[in-house]
Every structure is written in structure tokens, then in C-alpha cells.
Give the backbone structure.
Amino acid sequence: MAWSVVSLLGCLVLIWAIPWLDLRRSRPQTNSRDSFRENLSERPTLRLRSGLVSVEPQIRVGLKESPVAAFNLSVSGPFQVCDLTTGRVLWQAKLLHSCRVFVGDGGIEFGDRRFGTGAVEVIATTPPAIWVDQTLYRGVVRISPAAGRRVLPVNVLPLEQYLASVVDSEMPASFPEEARRAQAIVARTYALYQQSRSSAGGALDLYASTRSQKYRGFQYRDDKGRLLAGESASSRATVEATRGVIGTYCEDLFCAYYGAVCGGCTVDGQAVFADAAPPLQSVPCDHCREARLYRWQIRVSRKEAEELFRKAARRKGKTLGTLRTIQLVRDKVGDCRLRDERGEIELTGAEIRQVFSNKGLSSPRFTIREQGTDLLFEGQGHGHGVGLCQWGARGLAQKGWSAQRIFTYYYPGAKLADAGYR
């Protein structure tokens, strides 16, 4: 009897356990991207007025901030040069040794080879293989002639490949993973916003410099000739984990500005950028305290400072005579009123920073004091201070914050969504 009871209980346990065993055996393995999406407090949905397409976008990155007289080009494997308008193959070869690209009498020239007056596209058979000056790029490189016999190189590549370089270029690999995931989301949002505002007939969507966001390509050589990685397995995994996730406000893209160190409080976007959306509010941030430029000071001789103030005034179409007094504008950190023998000129902190940047003026938020024959600038942060603070994201991630929580902290009222491609 006892044995029958034990057998019956064993059968019942086995019957109860079988579904759980089957479930564990049949449950699909999730990759890092699936895991990230499962952890989102609000699952991304696509309801964007801008109507993004279902395939991964190609992003057009200007490799120079303006057209240049010439640049160096090489290709480390088989390639074609095609007419950008017709797609006709103009030249193909097994490799291209470094040559000067410029606009000559016959149009665009690669060394002694001429391709006419229209734009061309260099397509490598197996990218990355195209070098522009000291940087190796994925994708293709378009080359367009510009006024004054100048030329503009533009790298065109899939958005997610571009972001793998941006993440490593903008944020150290030593930062916590959740901070870098937040960076990927912000960089993707910024890039797609810029693309949505660019002209389809134009040459580019954004720039490879901090004029837009830093992009170092696949590899690059530094000033000492060392070959360094522009992306890594870590950055590619970070981008893949957040693939397609963007920030939205009122179900549309917004320009997700961000900076290195805010210095204790982010800046209200409307005070800096004309296109600042409501999520670009000022928020307290003491999480970047470990950054070297959380607080800083520089000293500039009064004579040299006067020349730089004069330069800033000229950029506004003003003339500054002999500088007599400097007065800070109340409630506008960094803004100054300069008085000369004729009257007053007001300069913003951002305008002053532009001309003093080579002196180490790291942000537009500072005070000025006279010390003998010098001016002492004491300031906070590095960059414009709007949006996500990269060092602040690091501090929050170290406290256990998730990427989505970091994102919504720095962009109040914004939500995460899916751009619609896989």
C-alpha cells in the first residue's frame, strides 16, 4: 500500500514537471538586443509622423566641415569609381595607391586620372577599404566638386555601422555599458533627426566632427602615426543591443543634443539652440563630479583677452575700442557686458567661448575676475551643457541606472520608440 502511494505521488510530480521541462527546453535563446527590449518599461512602438522606412537608413557623413582644395585617397582592395548620377562605371582596379584628389580643368581628378565635372562614388568590393587622408571607412565614399575648385568627400554607410564608431568616438570604452547604451540611443536619435532635416538633393546629413557628433570611421592614424580603432567589438555590441531604438517627443524625432560634462546642472536648450525641443530642459546633475572639467579655471592676460573680445565683437558686426570694464549679465551665466569709450557691447558665453577655446575655455558657463594684469575665468563643465551629460550618464550607470532611465532623466517628457527597421 505504501509503495502504491509513493508511486502515485511520483507520477503526479512527473506530470506536473513535464510542461516546465518542455518550456525550458523549447524557450528560444535571447540575444542582447532582445534582452534590452524586454527590460524596457515602455515597449517601443512606431507612431512617428516623420514616417521612417522599414529598412535601415544609409547615413551621409561629411568628412570635412567644408569643401577642401584636395585630400588624399587610397583603396586597399578591388574597387570601382562610378558616376553618381547615372551609376555608370568609370574605372575599376584591384587597388589604389595613395593619390591626391582635387578639381582640375577636366573636373575631379585622382592623381593623373580625370572623371569629368560631376560627382563620383568610390565603391570597394570588400569594405572597409577606402582611406580618406588618415582614416579608413566602411561603406562608400562620394566625392563632389564645389565652387572655387574645391572638393567634398562624403562617407555613405548603414546607420548602425556609423553608430558603432560614434559610440567609441564619443564615450570611452571604460564607461559602464548602460551609459554607452544611452549614448547609442541619443546618437541614433540625433543622426536620424539631422537626416530628416537634410535635403534629399544635398550632399550630406551631418558631419564627422563635433560640429555634429564625433565619427572616427573604422580605423585612423593619430598625430604620431599610430593606427587606432575607430570602433570595437564592444561598441558594435552596444549598438546592436539598442538597434533601432530612438528617442521621441510627441511621437516624433527631436534633436537630442548632448555634451561631455555639465558641471552640476544641464542647460535649458532654448537658451542655446533655436530648434531645442521641450525635453531639453535643465535638470540637476551632480553625477559628473569625477570629471576633470567639472570645475576649472584659466588665466589670460588682460591685453590678450581684450584682443579676443574684440574678435568676438567683430563677429557680431560690432567694434570694441579700449576695454574699460567687464560686467557679468545677471541670471545669464557666462554672458558679459563690455564697456569701451563709446558704450556697451553684450556677448554671450557661447560667443566668448568660440574665441577663447584655444586658451582652455571649456564651456560657456563661467565667471570673470580681474587679478592684477590678468583675467581669471572660473567655470563649470565641458561643452554646451544641453541634454545628456556623458560623465553624468557614467555616474548614474555606476549607481545601477538603466539606459532607458538615464535617457528619460536627461530628456524629461521624451519616450523611447522603435525606428521601424530590423
